[in-house]
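Class, carefully examine what follows:
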Amino acid sequence: SSGIPCGVERTSTTPLIFQGKNLERGQLPWLVAIFERRDSNGPAFICGGSLISTSTVLSAAHCFRHPGRDLTADRTAVSLGRNSLAIHSQGEIRGVTELIIHEKYNIKQSPESDLVLVRLDEPVRYNDYIVPICLWSTRNRMDLQQGLKTYVAGWGPDESGTGNSEVSKITDLNILSETSCAQELPPSLHQPNTLCAKKIGRGPCASDGGGPLMLRENDVWVLRGVISTGLIDEERHTCDLSQPSVFTDVAKHIDWVRRNMWD
């Protein structure tokens, strides 16, 4: 699988101006869907995630542990190489052998260190539809200025609010400075190791917990954040993009990610 660079789409490139554009298969080929295996009525979609190596997916800890949910590795499945949630569509499915939840994550509290590493039961082979995203590194900028365009993607609630959209979508969000974020959000949500972004004007709900907050630098996609809270109203299954969304900052947790991920 070596020789395939991270963060580069191989089939077609995702345009950067969207009002919530549906993704085609092969666009953002690191975007994965995480399912809970259930005895009855088949797997249930839980969260998005990002492929960062042949065996590792990075997602949000709250997808696996929050009040009322304790999803174990053996009940987890990961769908790769698809833009659709339909499991019978072309792509691959993997089981999961291990979950590493960040030790600072606390289900009763805020989005502090809301990260999980998910180990696939068998490494994937990279191809046109399965490519890892680049992890933030010191070559990338640490400080993100207010208004910087970032991108989120996933299978968020569809417009009717009745269920998840069948095909993944992407939308752009603008970074909010720490000061603006602190003014707009309750203190419990705004933590030192989080990032904030919001959509000016309307946009689709392209986001699920666990999905990526991406930067595009020199035509390479870089994983900068993991969707933690905001956007989605879990009860009504709708989302509000005018409210800032909170992301766990991968740059501030990069040592933990690199130390614990698998090849």
About this structure: The mean pLDDT is 87. The radius of gyration is 17 Å. Residues 224 and 250 are 5 Å apart (CA to CA). Helices lie at 178-184, 254-260.
